[in-house]
Amino acid sequence: MDDIAVKVTDLRRNFGDFTAVDGISLEVRKCEIYGFLGPNGAGKSTTIKMLCGLLLPTGGCGSVGGFDIVKDTAKIKSTIGYMSQRFSLYDDLTVAENINFYGGIYGVTGQKAKARVEWILETAQLAGYTRVLTGTLPIGFKQRLALGCALIHEPPILFLDEPTSGVDPILRRRFWGLIHDLSQGGTTVFVTTHYMDEAEYCGRLAFIYQGRLIAEGSADELKIKHMARDVYEVEVEGINEAMNVLDANGIETSVFGSVLHCTVAKTDEAATQIEDILRGAGIVVRQIQKIPPSLEDVFVNLIEGA
User: Fold this and answer.
1) pLDDT of residue 298
2) How far is CA 94 from CA 130, 194, 202, 228, 270, in A?
3) Which residues contact 259 (CB under 8 A, 6 or more apart)?
4) How far apart are CA 104 and CA 101, in angstroms?
5) N or C: which end of the chain has fewer CB within 10 A?
6) Is the confidence at residue 306, as pLDDT, over 70?
7) What pLDDT, in 10s, does the model give residues 193-215?
8) Which of 298, 260, 296 is nearest to 277 (CA)?
9) Can you tell me the mean pLDDT for 142-165?
10) β-strand partners of 291
11) Structural domains of the chain sorted by starting position, each given as residue range(s) with its CATH number in brackets
């Protein structure tokens, strides 16, 4: 158990008659990046709030950093770092004032506070913005500042609730670079997201749907275990019409940008069958090729199974 940072068993949370989290059990090892994935409304934020001591569970048990999530919520809050889905920054304070404010909350004072402020400004690339009002910062800058404030007391466990929502791909990649640096430096990172491409950056993943954990493992493990069928990328003219035709013929189809992904039983004739169906419906087929399944393919397959 010494290498376990987070552990929950049969974790549940009800809001009246609505079950937001339905019997989740998981373990997160120290220093790993654990991705908690699922669509909006799946129960990700509710779970993370219970782990952070912000919301008491209806049932089940668990620990974070060795502290009980029901009995030791105050100790959990002082031990972890937490970056909420909505930035918990004060827009009417400057960048420096926000950092100092959070330093005061966590009791970081004196020379240590000075050193941590300098580290945050350097790491978040905000050295030239100390006197700028936080409310005027672009979202990517706010994101880095919020992360810095969550880390000012050097917590061993960091919870990030959809930290890159609304941020462009370049800034998202930079943000994940920071997360990897933290993990390599000894920080356990528990991160929720609904961006499947981000999941590739995590060491292990858990998929949640309608409050239930439906799969867990590394990205490669999930692709092998939960994709017993092949995936074909299909480029056509009239993507919506093509999707309807394929669905009507029993072929599971999803839209990926300007192309379709078709999930079919493993057979050498699959591409020919797809093309014949589409051409028979008068649809122009530009290209069909077999591709490795993405995590989004895996997730779609799991959701349909659920």
Assistant:
1) 87
2) 6, 31, 33, 53, 59
3) 233, 234, 235, 239
4) 5
5) N
6) no
7) 878 888 889 999 999 999 999 99
8) 260
9) 90
10) 231
11) 4-223 (3.40.50.300), 226-305 (3.30.70.100)
